Amino acid sequence: MSLLNESQKEFYHNNGYLIIRDFVKTETCHALIQRASELMNTFDPTQFKTIFSTKDQRHAKQTYFLDSGKAIHFFLEENSLDTQGNLKFAKELCINKMGHALHRLDPIFKEFSYSDRIHALTQALGITEPTILQSMYICKQPLIGGEVTCHQDATYLYDEKHSIMGLWFALEDATIENGCLWAIPGGHRLPLKSRMKRNGSTTHTEIYDHSTWPLEQSIPLEVPRGSVILLHSLLPHMSRENSSPHSRHAYTLHVMPKENTFAPDNWLEPLSEWV
Ligand code: FE2
Hints:
alpha+beta, seven-stranded antiparallel sheet, four-stranded antiparallel sheet, 13 strands, globular, binds fe (ii) ion
């Protein structure tokens, strides 16, 4: 039996997103948060200080970012460094996200990412044999969690058929105050606005459409812990700054039907050993 009913599938196809509550057990959310904390403790900020910013994409020119498809790398919040370049807070409160091969390299995240339940979810939306392209653990830190500007995931992860789907697991409650996702319902019918491509050891972005997003149509996707939000690769979405004292931890996967081709000029070079 399919994990989704017909009205849920129809909602996804009409709106470009779908929220499923109570998808992840609370104890699993806790276990993933705990594991992420252990991984973040291994981060040595004296080695790499790469800020993740969707405003100026400065990270995208750095080898540490470009190599992260095959690793678990750590990226900092824009407001986590002082003028001398030192961390302003404890390192676990400065990390914006970890990525992009948690699903392959860490046993706890691997077990979760390749679980039968997630496989069944992708199958319900027509991805019979999913390839997991990347994974991210996103912290959205209290008070300094930065804005993620409106974008389509296909800008960063492109396949000709726009068949890549994002799965966004809320490991903590996501609210307007702590920077939940916002999306433009039905916006997946808009054309692709831009593409970021790898160019050797750097990247460049091609703009196809300079018009602004119809942000007045965007709605907040507030969800309780344990929910998953499915996102079409062309759906415009974003998140605001976290000005609250509460973190908003989330784990994300991007999957593509195995039979489709991941564009070789994507910035991401996934691990070749795909499952
Ligand atoms: Fe995104």
